[in-house]
Amino acid sequence: MNEVFGIPLPALLGQLMLGLVNGSFYALMSLGLAVIFGMLQIINFAHGAMYMMGAMFAWMAMVYLGVGYWWSLVLVPFAVGAIGIVIERFLLQWIYKLDHLYGLLLTFGLALMIGGGFRYVFGAAGQPYTIPKELSGVIDLGFMFMPKYRLWVIVASLAVCFATWYMIEKTRLGAYLRAATENPKLTQAFGINVPVMVMLTYAFGAALAGFAGVLAAPTTQVSPLMSANMIITVFAVVVIGGMGSIMGSIVTGLGLGVLEGLTKVFYAEASSTVIFVVMVIVLMFRPAGLFGKEK
């Protein structure tokens, strides 16, 4: 049997695929953060709460309304995005001209309030979410039996990530968004409603987190506590990729997920900290991140 540094090749490739699944979640979550920071200059610590709400709403829709996975995948991001609109209109719009610290503190407080509210109503225990029949079972990849659902996570996450990148970087709408960020007064002089664009940008970032939450629901125990570890890791991914960098979030999220998976093979004890070690190294030599722009 072929080996790499004493590790059987099938085991190595299998762990790489599982790392790619985690990387897909990292990329999707960090993309939402990057969109919000890049366009609004808000460090959105409530992003993890949006992710948790996506999973919880999908579970609630299944248990209380009988709504299946596919409908939840479409409807829940809109629901989370609508909550994002309320947050932006009633809270965030008042702090755009203030220091970034105010946005961080406000969204951190929101995350605590949202998480506490869900824990009060539903408790902290995890709840199972059923994998849709179409995606149950496994596929033989030759070196491992890969659950169909995890392959779907990779495909769906990559499709959404690159569609978002294309929209922001290659379309007229994306050009308007970038212009509204760089010079809102001039953009508004051309008849573009900048406040509405800002509101919809935050809603879109929240919807991305909600979408990630629905994707994650069948792979984990749905719980109000599920955002805690994810948001810390995702912030590290965004810092490494470069705050506000769309492509940096996608590439870095996928790459660090794979790195984390490979670390579990060669030195499992370091798998939970390797991303933060990389973050420290990157900040030492490139404080703006791998894809960020130095100011």
Q: What do these coordinates show?
A:
- This protein has 295 residues and is mostly helical.
- The chain has one domain.
- It has 11 helices and 4 strands.
- The chain has helices at residues 9-40, 47-65, 69-90, 100-122, 148-170, 172-182, 184-189, 194-216, 227-241, 246-266, 274-285; strands spanning 3-4, 7-8, 138-140, 145-147.
- The strands form 2 sheets. A two-stranded antiparallel ribbon has the order 1-2.
- The longest helix has 32 residues, at 9-40.
- The termini are far apart.
- The model has no long low-confidence stretch (mean pLDDT 87).
Kindly name the structural category: mainly alpha
Radius of gyration: 19 Å
Helix content: over 70%
Question: Please, how many helices?
Answer: 11
User: Mean pLDDT, nearest integer?
Assistant: 87
Strand residue percentage:
under 5%
Helix and strand run: EEHHHHEEHHHHHHH
Question: What order do the helices and strands come in, and which of them pair?
Answer:
Layout: E1 3-4, E2 7-8, H1 9-40, H2 47-65, H3 69-90, H4 100-122, E3 138-140, E4 145-147, H5 148-170, H6 172-182, H7 184-189, H8 194-216, H9 227-241, H10 246-266, H11 274-285
Antiparallel strand pairs: 1-2, 3-4
Helix pairs in contact: 1-5, 1-8, 1-9, 1-10, 2-3, 2-4, 2-8, 2-9, 3-8, 5-6, 9-10, 9-11
